[in-house]
Amino acid sequence: MTAAAGSVTKAGPVRTVKARQSLGATIAERLSGGLVRFFLVVVGLFWLVPTVGLLISSLRPPEDMSASGWWTVFSKPSQLTFDSYEKLLENGDITHSLLNTVLITVPATLLVVVVGALAGYAFAWMEFPGRDWWFLGVVSLLVVPVQVALIPIAELFGKIGLFGTILGVILFHTGFGLPFAVFLLRNFFAEIPRELLEAARLDGAGELRLFARVVLPLGGPAIASLGIFQFLWVWNDMLVALVFTKSGTQPITVALQTQVRQFGNNIDVLAPGAFISMVIPLAVFFAFQRQFVSGVMAGAVK
Prior knowledge:
This protein is mainly α. It contains 15 helices and no strands. α4 crosses α14 (267-287).
């Protein structure tokens, strides 16, 4: 009887654990089922409502936009027209500012990626005096707010003739983008197996060839993630451009803000301009979405 009672006592917790495990598995299956997926799809569609509304508004005449909401186009699709985009292309300030945005964003992104990759490799695998202290100094720059440096750097650029130029804006974005770039890429490059680099060195590869042939291909996801972050930050920036640019060097964000200030009802230019300003970074993000996810998840799974 004692043995039987003991066996029943021992079997009790086992059955309880199994019951708890089966309950947890059931909850996990339900959470990963179609209901949750449907909920996520609904949330995603709600997030797209402002984008769809802006697109439809950019395709409606100004008198229709002032008379009714954008959703009325579903009952009156004849409202849709491309006249606003034709007027946008005829607006020299907007088209020139869009070109300025490209001239600012592309070099600022490429400089941060290239210099950040070289510095990240140096901090990860090259030996030089004070390497760790230099890296600590670079990381400490991450805590410096952009707003603190606006006035001092504006005064410096004014003395050397860079204030109000596209080059000045590029240098500002590059300087403030490099600390994060070096921090991100150094930590990613440090995870590369040392044996792989040593094997390449035994084959006669120098540091530059090792960086180009081994490190860069392996660091592609992290570099793509960095490029997307930097591109979106520079393209959507307004504060730095508002301080450091003049009328001929303003990007699209400042140009649209100027349109609001000068022409309060100029919605036929603002709507298509805002949509073009938004859709270009979205296209860049979706084009490199796979590399971005790989870079974010790098190191999470061994």
